[in-house]
Amino acid sequence: MFSTKEKVSEELLLEEETVKQSEIVLFNDDVNTFDHVIDTLIAVCEHTPEQAEQCSLIVHHNGRCTVKTGEYDDLKPKCTRLLQAGLSAELV
Questions:
Q1: Which CATH number characterizes residue 68's domain?
Q2: Fewest beta carbons less than 10 Å away: which of 31, 42, 60, 91?
């Protein structure tokens, strides 16, 4: 027998699983400065300065980095803003 709290928790987990998580992937380029990438991630993706710096270093060394995850409809305008800022990003 489930307690009410356990049942609610189980239902929430099921709901979360049905929402498809998308991600914004940022790609390395030879155009943008670290400062521009960091400032843009802070402004668009609501990163802390530390998160933005870490992502910029990962992109620089690995060629790509997932910078934001969430629902597609929430991420689409953020990805568009990254592209408008001259960054190379893709929503997957």
A1: 3.30.1390.10
A2: 31
